[in-house]
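INFO  loader      accepted 1 record
INFO  loader      residues=91
INFO  predictor   begin
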Amino acid sequence: MIAKVAEASGVKRSDAKKVLEAVLAELGDALQRGDELNLPPLGKVSVNRQREGSGAHIVIAKLRRPKAMMAGAEEGDVSDAEATETEAAES
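INFO  predictor   done
INFO  writer      dumping tokens
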């Protein structure tokens, strides 16, 4: 992912890595707090529920992507354009 971000943005891989790690850390913190996030072009993320797992905090979130945002998605990548429930575990 770091290589793709560096290529798409035209920055050095080391700079892309720092920014990407900071963004992902803040995203994880925001989800753990239960914040609703509007992240264009990704979509709108809202926390559905949270629970403690063995050695992890589990966040069940919904991702809502308008069809216009999905123009670049490859066929078969997303099963439901309206809302996709994903599970992310944080250590």
